């Protein structure tokens, strides 16, 4: 087996020494070529070209942003070539996709799990989400968001450029500061989903491809607890941002059961093949924890059995 190992050298939870250990362990089992990313979207380019260069498998080491780039590259594999399978080793601050697959959050332990799967031939196919619009055609692995969460991602990216280290605590602090300032109270979003009446007046909205939406440290945050890789997309939107209602919803998100399908102050939709979210004016938008800028409208689509994952 020939494998391309895409490494993000800026991965926040690994060191050069630990990366060398991981590379050495994998290279004992497969013919391995290592490529380090040098700029944004480099991982996508490397993954897109992997099949043409004769690689059977792509392995990545990095956070959810690296995973998203690799997945989007693999889904652009030329149709005449067999698409490589994919294995992801966590190296970021949250690693939502890897953990949602049931993989260890520790990079070395996850490497061991990947090697066991490679030796046994174990794999599974997962569905993905896809966004489309005037300036978008891109896949996401676990979530997309309009409003509050995207504004948090935008602010965290700004702080990282100024030298701050990404961590669950940083995301939580930024989110709370924005909430307390009142700047996120903006009921300008509208949800349209087949089989349901349109819903306007949403302050922010999430579209998920699995649960959890994210993690608060080791605790899964579950606004859409029924969401699964094997199903369509789920949606969660808040119709109020009052402090009491938000506190209740946050407690439910952090509970083992997650947020119920129906309740006051929010709406949810389950297992949707497609949907649209629009805004009266441009709002912040993110996918898989990566800020994409402001958007007026995004169409979402479920893509079943899109990718084979080694796990």
TrEMBL record:
<dbReference type="InterPro" id="IPR016064">
    <property type="entry name" value="NAD/diacylglycerol_kinase_sf"/>
</dbReference>
<keyword id="KW-0808">Transferase</keyword>
<dbReference type="GO" id="GO:0005886">
    <property type="term" value="C:plasma membrane"/>
</dbReference>
<keyword id="KW-0418">Kinase</keyword>
<feature type="domain" description="DAGKc">
    <location>
        <begin position="1"/>
        <end position="135"/>
    </location>
</feature>
<dbReference type="InterPro" id="IPR017438">
    <property type="entry name" value="ATP-NAD_kinase_N"/>
</dbReference>
<dbReference type="InterPro" id="IPR001206">
    <property type="entry name" value="Diacylglycerol_kinase_cat_dom"/>
</dbReference>
<dbReference type="GO" id="GO:0004143">
    <property type="term" value="F:ATP-dependent diacylglycerol kinase activity"/>
</dbReference>
<protein>
    <submittedName>
        <fullName>Diacylglycerol kinase family enzyme</fullName>
    </submittedName>
</protein>
<dbReference type="InterPro" id="IPR050187">
    <property type="entry name" value="Lipid_Phosphate_FormReg"/>
</dbReference>
<comment type="similarity">
    <text>Belongs to the diacylglycerol/lipid kinase family.</text>
</comment>
<dbReference type="Pfam" id="PF00781">
    <property type="entry name" value="DAGK_cat"/>
</dbReference>
């Amino acid at each position: 087996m020939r494998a391309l190992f895409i490494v993000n050298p800026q991965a926040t939870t690994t060191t050069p020494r630990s990366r060398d250990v991981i590379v050495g362990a994998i290279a004992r089992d497969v013919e391995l070529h290592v490529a380090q990313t040098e700029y944004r979207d480099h991982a996508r380019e490397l993954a897109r070209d992997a099949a043409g260069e004769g690689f059977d498998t792509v392995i990545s080491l990095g956070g959810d942003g690296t995973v998203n780039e690799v997945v989007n590259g693999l889904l652009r594999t030329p149709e005449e070539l067999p698409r490589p399978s994919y294995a992801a080793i966590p190296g970021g601050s949250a690693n939502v996709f890897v953990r949602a697959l049931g993989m260890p959050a520790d990079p070395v332990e996850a490497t061991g799990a990947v090697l066991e799967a490679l030796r046994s031939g174990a794999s599974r196919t997962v569905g993905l989400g896809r966004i489309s619009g005037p300036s978008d055609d891109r896949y996401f692995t676990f979530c997309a968001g309009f409003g509050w969460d995207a504004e948090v991602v935008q602010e965290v990216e700004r702080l990282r450029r100024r030298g701050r280290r990404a961590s669950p605590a940083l995301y939580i602090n930024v989110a709370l500061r924005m909430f307390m300032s009142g700047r996120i109270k903006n009921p300008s979003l509208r949800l349209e989903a087949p089989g349901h009446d349109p819903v306007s007046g949403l302050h922010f909205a999430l579209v998920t491809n699995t649960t959890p939406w994210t993690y608060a440290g080791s605790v899964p945050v579950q606004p859409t607890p029924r969401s699964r890789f094997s199903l369509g997309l789920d949606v969660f939107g808040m119709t109020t941002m009052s402090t009491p209602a938000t506190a209740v919803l946050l407690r439910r998100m952090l509970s083992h059961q997650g947020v119920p399908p129906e309740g006051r102050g929010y709406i949810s939709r389950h297992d949707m093949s497609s949907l649209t979210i629009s805004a009266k004016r441009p709002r912040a938008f993110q996918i898989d924890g990566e800020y994409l800028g402001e958007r007026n409208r995004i169409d979402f689509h479920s893509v079943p059995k899109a990718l084979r994952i080694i796990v």
